[in-house]
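Complex 107.
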Amino acid sequence: MSDCLFCKIIAGDIPSQKVYEDDNMLAFKDIRPSAPVHILLIPKKHIASLQDLSADDADLMGKLMLAVPKIAADNGLSNGFKTQINTGVGGGQEVFHLHIHIMGRPA
Ligand code: 5GP
Ligand code: ZN
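Predicted structure with zinc ion bound:
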């Protein structure tokens, strides 16, 4: 999506501090961290929110969830972490490209 901030980050049109990337997903540091480690994990496919998932996205979402603890551990959060997915205006979502917040303090 040409007017999506996170699609622009995926395309490299907007710089980000990447911490993980593969064919399906990208993880990068949140620009306004609310924890010592605050990473956003996004699918490369533009999906606006959890409310916009289809059955076709089941495999992709499974891959994202499996990547979460690995990305957390690689960034010092092997002792545990918090995850958050804000969904829709009522859920406080500001960027409408599905993203998983991974937050914590290194042990
Ligand atoms: P939401 O409120 O939609 O769940 O979270 C959006 C997140 O994206 C916020 O935590 C915000 O700090 C982050 N964010 C917004 N713009 C940028 C940006 O240009 N670069 C990065 N790295 N993070 C951003
Ligand atoms: Zn997007």
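The chain has a mean pLDDT of 97.
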